[in-house]
Amino acid sequence: MALIATGATASPASSMASELMAQGRESAAVLEALLHGASLPPAHGGAHALAAEILRCCDRALAALRAGGDAESSSPGTKRSKPATAQPATRRRRRAAASGGGAAAAAEPARVEMARTSEDGFLWRKYGQKEIKNSKHPRLYYRCSYKDDHGCTATKQVQQSEEDPSIYVITYFGDHTCSCQTAAAMDDDDDDENSQHFVIHFGSATASRSGSPPLLYDDDDGDVWRETAATPPSSRQSRSSPEVDGEESGVKMSKEEPVDSCPVPSAVSSPADVVSCSSPAMEPDLLRCLNWDDDFGDSSFVDADEFMNFDEIDLFQIYS
DNA sequence: GTGATTTGACCTTC
DNA sequence: GAAGGTCAAATCAC
Q1: Can you give the distance from the CA of residue A127 to the C1' of nucleotide C8 in angstroms?
Q2: What is the pLDDT of residues A137-174, one digit of tens each?
Q3: pLDDT tens digits for A39-63?
């Protein structure tokens, strides 16, 4: 569909880094020519100047990339991320061995990385996992880590897409009453303010929930998110509380906001907010998603258009 | 020791 | 009774 074509958009930091790298490469090419005996254009200040420029470009590009990645890498939510993600299979084997094994233990793929547990700006604690009928993948249950401390009722459910395992559907329930949004997320919000122009708009932001194209946007991390119009009935089966009574109001997240801020308390005002993401970092099988930045940093990235996984976008339509 | 994750068991809803 | 949601003991990493 036409709305896919936007070229998906690198983050501001990424774009800046890309430009800087391109500039550095140009300088390096000139320097190489100089080293090979070519005459130096008058505009250039000599080999030393070129070398300095290359270094400067690289430094700035690295700084830009790091600035773009620090928010997530420094997130408090990642406290146990790396170790935990690196050992799940081992842990499960141990537990399975201790308990005589279990079907669920063998079913879930090894977790590789959890570096972005708090990518939506909140700290979540996993409290359950359930095999869902007619679904190949289990549903994961998270609640706000501050539930005990602040009585925060926010929860979310994450379920892997059957069509494309790299896509996860995240359903938010309840309000955050804890003001627990991470500092990193707050930084992200600041970044978001500066990256609004990177938000992809597909269709009218004020379009009605029915019949309008799904709203897709990418966050600073390049994840592509989709908000869905309705909460799956199965997700609210046991939720008779008022927080899910506002279904007719649909998703309330701001369509202008990158996803990092969409589940914030003000946005999750009551109905379940359903968001699907091509690569929520808190889930297993996300190695390649989480290496996305690495891939980006790799020279293989040459065109912003390559950032968009069009197949995933097509899948988004399946959900609607 | 602390805190997060796992997972079987239990509860609730239909 | 089935299915989904939650609890809590066991387990693990730091």
Answers
A1: 10
A2: 888 898 888 776 677 778 888 887 777 777 778 888 87
A3: 655 455 566 666 666 656 555 554 4
Instruction: Evaluate if pTM is beyond 0.90.
Output: no
Cα separation, A304 vs A195, in Å, equals 16
* Residue with nearest Cα to nucleotide B13 C1': A238
Kindly state the helix (H) or strand (E) to which residue A142 belongs, with its residue range.
strand A139-144
CA of A231 to C1' of B10 (A): 26
Instruction: Identify protein residues whose C-beta is within 7 angstroms of any atom in strand C.
Output: A 80, 82-84, 86-87, 90-91, 94-95, 98-99, 127-135, 139, 141, 143, 155, 157, 173, 234-239
Q: CA A80, C1' B3: Å apart?
A: 9
CB A281 within 8 A of CB A115: yes
Number of helical H runs and strand E runs in chain A: 10, 7
Q: How confident is the model at residue A86 (pLDDT cuts 50, 70, 90)?
A: very low
For chain A, domains (ranges, CATH) are 13-67 (no CATH), 111-173 (2.20.25.80)
